Automatic annotation (TrEMBL):
Binds 2 Zn(2+) ions. This is Ribonuclease Z. Belongs to the RNase Z family. GO terms for molecular function: 3'-tRNA processing endoribonuclease activity. It is an enzyme of class 3 (hydrolase). Zinc phosphodiesterase, which displays some tRNA 3'-processing endonuclease activity. Probably involved in tRNA maturation, by removing a 3'-trailer from precursor tRNA. The keyword Chaperone does not apply.
Length: 307
């Protein structure tokens, strides 16, 4: 079981010598959610050691160039590498024209494995293998959606209670499948007798947005939140004008939503490496949990399941 974020790029509108345009691959038990493939994503995938075969979803938040200009290269790589499984593409339905332009941006041997899933409205739930992918609108000058991945809730078996009820071996699997099992003494043992609820794990991705209801709905209680922090607080007015967040606002949202691990990304080119500690400090003023300042090619594991 592998659940990790592979960071492919962390710049905002303009790439820098140290940061490529956006690109984030969330690997989750065989599913691969590629969020916002910006320009250069195909090459960054090579550096990160991931391939087109690892992608099962392409999720575009909106159609500003730094979040989508890598789509043609990724599509062509999917075709060139003869990816055989279905790759679903989620993006704002309002940007259908831009998706079509990117999807067919040049002459190349095409592929039939890409299935489009345009999203609209206040919430869209998309089945994605073992998880559900949810899209919610964000606040940006163009139509923009954030995404959330949720594992279904389950139950954690209690060995001591299983032993006390005489449930052993294959009987445990039968109890999990059917909800009841007949114990050796003839009594009926219910799943609730030998287990406790186990919340499913979750991750959320919010790019290019002001603070809004969508941000909070996506981030509520997630194990891993990847969120833009384009500006520092000194540029808060500029952030609001252009539809972005500051690091302090990202930390505030994470704190109010009970996030476990916060990943800051999408940094303006105006800041240098010397400014990076300031992003951590400003986010940390409100959020006391773990904060990761994303860098290109780093891998961030989804926090281990809470017992």
């Amino acid at each position: 079981m592998l659940r990790e974020l592979v960071v492919l790029g962390t710049a905002s509108a303009v790439p820098t010598r140290r940061r490529n345009h956006n690109g984030y691959l969330l690997r989750w038990d065989g599913e691969g959610f590629l969020f916002d493939p910006g320009e250069g994503t195909q090459r960054q995938m090579l550096h990160a050691g991931v391939s087109a075969h690892d992608i099962t979803w392409i999720c575009v938040t909106h159609f500003h160039g730094d979040h989508c200009l890598g789509v043609p290269g990724v599509v062509q790589r999917i075709a060139r590498d003869r990816v055989g499984h279905q790759v679903q593409a989620a993006y704002p339905a309002a940007g259908q024209m831009y998706w079509e332009r990117l999807r067919h941006a040049s002459a190349f041997a095409d592929t039939s494995v890409i299935k489009t899933r345009p999203v609209s409205g206040e919430v869209a739930h998309l089945p994605a293998g073992p998880v559900t992918l949810t899209a919610r609108p964000l606040s940006h000058p163009v139509a923009s959606y954030g995404y959330r991945v949720d594992e279904p809730a389950g139950r954690r078996m209690l060995p001591a209670e299983l032993a006390r009820h005489g449930v052993t071996g294959p009987m445990v699997g039968e109890l999990q499948r059917n909800g009841t099992v007949t114990a050796p003494d003839g009594s009926t043992v219910h799943l609730a007798d030998c287990s406790v609820p186990r919340p499913g794990q979750s991750a959320a991705f919010a790019m290019d947005t002001r603070l809004c209801d969508g941000v909070y709905a996506l981030a509520e209680g997630v194990d891993l939140l990847v969120i833009e922090s384009t500006f520092l607080s000194a540029e808060a007015a500029l952030a609001t004008e252009y539809g972005h967040l500051t690091a302090a606002q990202a930390g505030k949202a994470a704190a109010e939503c009970g996030v476990r691990r916060l990943v800051l990304a999408h940094f303006s080119e105006r800041y240098s490496a010397d400014d990076e500690p300031r992003f951590l400090d400003e986010a940390g003023e409100a959020f006391g949990g773990e904060i990761v300042l994303a860098r290109d090619l780093m891998r961030v594991p989804v926090p281990k399941r809470q017992s």
